[in-house]
Amino acid sequence: MAGQRGYTSFGKEHAKGRNTGDLKEFWHFGQYVEDNDPIIKEYPDNVLVQELPIFNSVGKEAYQTLEKAGQSMLRAISIYLGLDENYFDAKIHNGNSILRPIHYPPIEGEPKDAVRAAEHEDINLITLLMGASADGLEVMNKQGEYIAVTALPDHIVVNVGDMLQRLTNNKLRSTTHRVVNPPREKWGQSRFSIPFFLHPRSDMSLNCLENCIDENHPKAYNDIRAGGYLNERLAEIGLKK
Known about the structure:
This protein is an alpha+beta fold. It has helices spanning 53-80, 89-92, 162-167, 226-236, and strands spanning 6-8, 25-28, 98-99, 102-104, 117-120, 126-129, 137-140, 146-148, 157-160, 177-179, 191-193, 195-198. The longest helix is centred in the N-terminal third of the chain and has 28 residues, at 53-80.
């Protein structure tokens, strides 16, 4: 399933351009198609944890709540881009979004060049981040410097992903970020976080928007659809062959 559903083991995923696995393990909840949309054939079933029934119900509630929040955020982005407010609505309906509870286990030995999550940009349109159980998330600012970021209670951090960067011809830049290892005295502590990766349907065009192309900003990307782009990127990070 290329890591689309259920459990992905420690060290399996790595950042694009790196061979060292990240110091994390995670679970994936995927889309819940509850109408007669034929797109259901594209998605594997969610993995049910029979031993923990509440895990399934809480995961579904979190997934659908964050998906709705993401839709509202994309409506605001649409207005900013000069598009119809509902430009993304149909394109993300029953989209290939992923909710990923992540566990960064305690660090038990010298990690050499491995970190909890090496610097990278997300593949999707936008990522919604709730507060984590410990510090570590850093994002790169426009000066190329990393700054620590923590979502406060009742706050959500929103990162732009590569799909939106591509669609907007770099008008909205993908957020480079990483999760650094804690100080040695805190190596014995786990870290938990729950990002929501908002993806469109596989047939969404990621061709650069015409109103984001001009003499000073020529078209920077080849035409591609979301499904094809996702497959390319999953192979790059070790989740698909």
